[in-house]
TrEMBL record, chains A, D:
Residues 1-123 form the NIF system FeS cluster assembly NifU N-terminal domain. It holds the Pfam family NifU_N. It comes from Desulfosporosinus acididurans. This is Iron-sulfur cluster assembly scaffold protein IscU. One of its GO terms (biological process) is iron-sulfur cluster assembly.
UniProtKB/TrEMBL annotation, chains B, C:
It comes from the Bacteria. HAMAP family: Cys_desulf_IscS. The keyword Cytoplasm applies. InterPro entries: Aminotrans_V_dom, Aminotrans_V_PyrdxlP_BS, Cys_deSase_IscS, Cys_deSase_NifS_bac/arc, Cysteine_dSase, PyrdxlP-dep_Trfase, PyrdxlP-dep_Trfase_major, PyrdxlP-dep_Trfase_small. It comes from Desulfosporosinus acididurans. Pathway: Cofactor biosynthesis; iron-sulfur cluster biosynthesis. It is an enzyme of class 2 (transferase). It is found in: Cytoplasm. GO terms for cellular component: L-cysteine desulfurase complex. GO terms for molecular function: 2 iron, 2 sulfur cluster binding; cysteine desulfurase activity; metal ion binding; pyridoxal phosphate binding. Its EC number is 2.8.1.7. This is Cysteine desulfurase IscS. It catalyses: (sulfur carrier)-H + L-cysteine = (sulfur carrier)-SH + L-alanine. GO terms for biological process: [2Fe-2S] cluster assembly; amino acid metabolic process. The gene is iscS_1. The lineage of its organism: Bacteria, Bacillati, Bacillota, Clostridia, Eubacteriales.
Length: 125, 395, 395, 125
């Protein structure tokens, strides 16, 4: 069903947890449909210094969350915005067709977190 | 690694005695039972012996047993065959909200093709009330189709009472006994059942074999046409090795049922109680005690999702199943759990353990040792758990 | 006693290699392929490997193979599934006079339910002409359903030509290849076949398994509703051990086909020629040479009745079959022989020998030694033989 | 399928053959439906002295023919007329249901032979 890479990220997820005083937080999904992903960002300047996640969901949901955090750490916000759900799935060696739609939302959560960061910055200004 | 199989309601291993018997019919006694020669006759004889064994387990006459390719086909034959045979009499069918897809989808197909369907609800334990079935009956009701015991939560339905009701109203009564066969007693006569679906691979027989009991005198139109096997009720070269295996499995089930039920219900309760004790925020789904199949445990574990639980258990060698939508690739979790009133988020985190003949006390201990750790780990990752804990602390 | 099995078109023994593989999936790798855990995954993987093996033997893509419980169910799915999917487009179906009951009875069921049926005749060798199919085509024809090779007389039909015709007219083309699979090459692409029925137990695989090839893009309504297995085309827990056995049998068949065909056609011809040489008043039914399946012998032996022949052969350990009505308990002898123009009394005395992988030259010698004695004995008892001999002497 | 007794009579049929100058011959069935039974009688006074048969047909047809000849040898014509198809089947330990109708005609052939005998006698008188 899942690739080895998915299973690796599910079993040993990278960057699980919260960032206290995160300056960007994004959440997508809802418990009703079985997936919630929340991503915390620590942005300095234009660069993602640290990133963590918490996810309620299936194997694919956990693995994509973990993968996206690995992909963006150290990247600029603009680079991060270019990461799509499909790219995350690809980085994992692919996902089962049924999972491509319902559980492959990690990039969306990332983008939501970046959006949240920008909004917070605007408010500060 | 220890491998603990706790998914016997999905399927069972074939009993070694059954498998050995089947081998003989695959490689030596391989005749087609329709053939005149001795290869054919020895196959035919074994086929009829299997029919007798199956009939005996459900209190039927051998001539009332029609073999099919499984429980799903038998359900289809019962429902669509009755609909075709009786459509002139009426076009209303009654079923329940917790049926297997083999019944629900088939009823819904009929609904799309001019039949009326009433889906009777269940209570929070997953049990149908006789009263609600009674209320659903109309003058044009031709069929009540429902299960004996539920595959997800193990709820045992009051089929004998509903059978009586159906009989009084002259309505054909079909019971899907795929999950109850070999686990609790079935008697088609005293339960007033007209059509009964059973399946081999849930009772340590081979996959790809099942049967429909058709009470003498009840008309069911065939669904598969051809050589006229099974008294024209189901054409196709008989799967003799499979059927013979099913027959043997029925015989063994009859011998083992009482002892297994007693032993497994103890293990079941140990597992349920152990989970409640060791993990917070859990909910047992389905009835307790005698209203529940002796081998079924179903529990919702809040703040975590079913597939994650399954994968984590699997990595430790434990095979279970879940009512999560994510395990089936659909969007909604188990229609059974929803029909029992569970909210989506709780239904998503449900786990089913179904015990079998080979499970031991040690298997249960192993699960009770591993499951809490898994839940802890997943809850650590879950954004919902924080919220709940914070909310509780805030109280 | 020597046992010589010459009824391979009725069914075959399961190859020992196939049976051994199946055993593993009955008792060890018994998971339900829909399950998330490792038991389920290993079953799923083997199932998909089997699909690949089956597809390869017929030149299809794995995704175009839908597993069923046998040839009969696949025929039903093809015909009734097409009828349901296309009934708005038209209601005319073409078939032939020599089809298996799984096709004929199914077509006749549709005829009783508002469809038009044209049954194309055959010539005296049992072969359908492309011309007669062409003539039968109407603007509302939705389906041509016919066999690749005949189960009784081994006649091979011009399916590629008829496939071309069907394609030109945009008509779905269904071919029943139950008897030809593994005996002569099949390529669904070059033969322009849309739907192809195959069955496992005719090619040294287990009974109770078959498949329908459904060309990508061709619509076939399901006949069995439920859990949505086989991409919703055929619900029901998959018979994984059976399917895996079928896959392996297809692989072996592909490897052995050329050699077996050569060897068996020699034995076939030896048996046919031997019978003609040793017994008077006989008639070979069906075509000769390449237009005949390599393993089929069908002969009418005048003045004696088929079942008596079968019983007498059986007492000497020889298993064959016949087109006599008496072997089937019906009144009319084989519809295939009648369609080829045989008179009833000759059709009653027909015998079919179908050779298989394990048959040897010695088996044929044994039949050629015993059969003439049996015929002599039965003719001594027959009131018809006297008459014929007297009539001849009187000439 | 068949009882041992049927198989015995099929394998070792009693009284196969013709009676030259038989004074009663009866035939039933036709080749089209797959069964022909012909019974030859040698009647002396009122008694069946000898009886023979020839049959084209299935196992049941041969066995019932053989059985009926055994049952009537030495019997009076009146006794013979009391033998029914069902009685023949019963004497064989039963026949498969499908065969009860189509191949169980031996008593009919016997009765036809007795009828033939009577007709021949009448003609003589
Ligand atoms: C209650 C119930 N009905 C029907 C079925 C279908 O039976 P089968 O798997 O033999 O097709 C199942 C099993 O999946 C079941 O649990
Ligand atoms: C030509 C043909 N079609 C269909 C079938 C039916 O296949 P099955 O025996 O797998 O139901 C047979 C075999 O009996 C056959 O010979």
């Amino acid at each position: 069903m899942y690739t080895e890479k998915v299973m690796d990220h599910f079993t040993n997820p990278r960057n699980v947890g919260e960032i206290e005083n995160a300056n960007g937080v994004g959440e997508v999904g809802n418990a009703k449909c079985g997936d919630i992903m929340r991503i915390y960002l620590d942005v300095e300047g234009d660069v993602i210094k640290d990133v963590k996640f918490k996810t309620f969901g299936c194997g694919a949901a956990v693995a994509t969350s973990s993968m996206v955090t690995e992909m963006v750490k150290g990247k600029t916000l603009d680079e991060a915005l270019e990461i799509s759900n499909a790219a995350v799935a690809e980085a994992l060696g692919g996902l089962p067709p049924a999972k491509m739609h319902c559980s492959n939302l990690a990039a969306d959560a990332l983008h939501a977190a970046i959006k949240d960061y920008h909004e917070k910055q605007e408010k500060k200004e | 690694m220890r491998r603990v199989y706790l998914d016997h309601s999905a399927t069972t291993p074939v009993d070694p005695e059954v498998a050995a018997l089947m081998m003989t019919y695959y490689t030596e006694k391989y005749g087609n039972p329709s053939s005149v020669h001795s290869f054919g006759r020895e196959a035919k004889q074994a086929l009829e012996e299997a029919r007798r064994q199956v009939a005996e387990l459900i209190g039927a006459e051998p001539s009332e047993v029609t073999f099919t390719s499984g429980g799903t086909e038998a359900d289809n034959l019962a429902i669509l065959g009755t609909a075709e045979a009786l459509s002139k009499k009426g076009k209303h069918i009654i079923t329940t909200a917790v049926e297997h897809h083999a019944v629900l989808e088939t009823c819904e197909y009929l609904e799309k093709n001019g039949f009326d369907l009433t889906i009777v609800p269940v209570d929070e334990e997953g049990i149908v009330s006789v009263e609600s079935v009674k209320k659903a009956i109309r003058p044009d009701t031709i069929l009540i189709t429902m299960m004996h015991a539920n595959n997800e939560v193990g709820a045992i339905q009051p089929v004998a009472e509903i059978g009586k009701l159906a009989k009084e109203h002259g309505i054909v009564f079909h019971v899907d006994a795929v999950q109850s066969l070999g686990k609790i007693p079935i008697d088609v006569k005293t339960m007033a059942i007209d059509l009964l679906t059973i399946s081999s691979h849930k009772i340590y027989g081979p996959k790809g074999v099942g049967a429909l009991y058709i009470r003498k005198g009840v008309r069911v139109a065939p669904r598969i046409y051809g050589g006229g096997q099974e008294k024209k009720r189901r054409s196709g070269t008989e799967n003799t090795p499979g059927i013979i295996g099913f027959g043997k499995a029925c015989e063994l089930a009859g011998q083992r049922m009482a002892e297994d039920a007693q032993r497994l219900s103890k293990l079941r309760d140990k597992l349920m109680n152990g989970i409640i004790e060791k993990i917070d925020y859990v909910k047992i789904n389905g009835p307790l005690g005698d209203k529940r199949l002796p081998n079924n445990v179903n529990v919702s574990i809040q703040f975590v999702e079913g597939e994650s639980l399954l994968l984590s258990l699997d990595m430790l060698g434990i095979a279970a199943s879940s009512g999560s939508a994510c395990t089936s690739g659909s969007l909604d979790p188990s229609h059974v759990l929803l029909a029992m009133g569970l909210v989506h988020e709780i239904a998503h985190g449900s786990l089913r353990f179904t015990l079998g003949h080979q499970n031991t006390e040690e298997d249960i201990d192993y699960v009770l040792e591993q499951l809490p750790k898994i839940v802890d780990r997943l809850r650590m990752m879950s954004p919902l758990y924080d919220q709940a804990v914070h909310a509780k602390q805030a109280q």
